[in-house]
Amino acid sequence: MPEPEPTFRIGTDSSKFPAPAGTDAAWLLQKAASAGLEGVFFRSALELSPTLDVGELTALRQQADELDLYLEVGAAKINPFAAPEAPEIRALGDGDYLLGIERIVAACAAAGIHEIWAATANYKFDLAGRLACDRYRTDVTWEEQLRATAKVMAELAPVLRAHGSHLNIETHEEITTFELVRLVEEGGPDAFGITFDTANVLIRGEDPVAAARRVAPYTRQTHVRDGALFFTDQGLCRMLAPCGQGVIDWPALMAALVGAPRRALSIEGIMGRRFQLPIPIYDPLWHAGQPDMTTVEITELVRLARAYDAAVARGERRSLASLSEPADDDERERFVLDSVAHLRAVAVGIGATVDTRIGAGAPR
């Protein structure tokens, strides 16, 4: 009798897992299996095949199947105001950006890959202040960007339905869960879903547990990491932390996701730094630009920040100065593996089934 599918399968984001120079997607799939992970999310389908060769994509999908790994890929930003920053997608479409995305969907579907990541805009980590985030662009309003995104989704919907695929839009730094739920409901949950990033919602002033409850009915991909909150002159800031070492209530969050359509959790680790991003709760313009935001959730973030501050004082959590230090490859890998261990323990604690193989690289 076949073994039941685990409630949660826990893997990694390809772009944040340290890899030696010259390695490829096949190497990472094998590495993930050897480390006891259960899947890989590749940020771009072009990581699997730069030319979208269906044979190459199929071979990697078959390798993932043999290793008992889930395989997810990314497509592109679907906000046309962000499109100029992804010229490779336009090149895929011979100058037609939409056609480039459609070709990614078609090639992946032909290889049996149907869960595809997308996002709405960009965050410029080398800039400071509101203008680092596309939500606050001065040449086009956020409302105009959302309307343009909805139009692109309407164009892509028939292609997605024809291939039995979902384009899953991320809770990226610039968009709220309220806005994403509206986009998906308007575009149609049979073609679109949500990629829930557990730490990004903090940037938008949202309580991660409340956010999880909002997006769970549409969550088909999940990017998982914790966040440490600190008080600043602007209000708060967020630093990335392994799951269980930040402020998120993981039992409550994972309980909210038990009912999601898909429960593949990809640990999105860190590069060389943990990205200190502002949550400027003292800024009236920040509040004015987020009409869905609630005082209940903002005050919950303040409570979480106070609790984290107390944990730092007790020596139980890392300080802002400590988290600001560069991270080497060993720490980057520990970030992923420590997060996996914590999530597996939480899953067991809430009574969810979970694949608990550690270090098993052979197919079951």
From TrEMBL:
Tell me which residues make up the Xylose isomerase-like TIM barrel domain: 29-259
**Leader sequence residues:** none
Q: Which keywords does this Swiss-Prot/TrEMBL entry list? A: Isomerase
Note the superkingdom of the native organism: Bacteria
> Isomerase as a keyword?
yes
Q: Name one GO molecular function term.
A: isomerase activity
Q: Is Isomerase one of the keywords?
A: yes
UniProt xrefs under Pfam families: AP_endonuc_2
Protein name as catalogued: Sugar phosphate isomerase/epimerase family protein
Q: What is the protein's species of origin?
A: Nocardioides ginsengisoli
- Give the taxonomic lineage as stored in the record: Bacteria, Bacillati, Actinomycetota, Actinomycetes, Propionibacteriales
